[in-house]
Predict the 3D structure of the following.
Amino acid sequence: MARAAVMQRRLVAFSRMRALVTGGGGFLGTHLVERLRAEDHDVVVARSADYDLTAMDDTARMFGDADAELVFHLAAEVGGIGANRANPGRYWFANLAMGANVLEQARLHETPKLVIVGTVCAYPKFAAVPFTEDDLWEGYPEETNAPYGVAKKAVLVGAQAYREQYGLDAIFLLPTNLYGPRDNFDLETSHVIPALIRKMVESEDEVVLWGDGSPTREFLYVDDCVAGLVLAAERYNGPEPVNLGAAHEISIKELAELIADVTGYHGRITWDSEKPNGQPRRSVDGSRARELFGFEAKTALREGIERTVAWYRTAVAGVGTT
């Protein structure tokens, strides 16, 4: 209890503390670690090579090694539509097991604050747009990502149950689709923005895209997401899930045209309607985050894509910026 009281005092100013970031070597994790270290926090980065969070013993060892006052649980097994279709069992098990193990070890180690990152894939397939947090239980998720989404939603239930029974201060955030520098550009497992960027930078004549281009999505720049995580850690301690969004919905067809413009791609865009579209529409209501801890995204979609393309050309493609 004394440790929790110290944490509450620190959260007022969010002064220097020891923080653990699971998935700290991943896309979102590396950006969060940079932000925390820039603010002079002592950060422990947990990577899958060091700890298998689907195993309780490894999770316990990680918590013991870190001795953290603040834990961000970002670790996940996730990918685009193709990866979700190829790995439904693995994605269900891994994400459920990791979330359950982290909750249990946070309880046992009396962790003062746990920030859990969920997924917009948890929302029902036909939820009214924009998605409000109260819509989470109004239906089943879109089939291609349902195992992953359901596993994450179960972790939310666990966080709420641990708060009620054990007093664990665990909060649950639901970012919409993320993108930005250092994203995953592997075409077998990547999400739509990095996949489009890679295809359009590397191709000259034609790119083939899944579906018909009609679904809509909302994209949150990674540094904006990090800002939301930090604000929530500092200012929010409630049981209800909270969306993190960018307040801009765009169709995949419009997105492809935007990325073609930014990359200078002038070839054909062919839609393979034999492949699935995924969820018809996806956009979130960000009012709860704005009201509870003052979060609003700052990066316009075109600006974020320009930064991401520039990073990809320099760091991955090796062709320089244009």
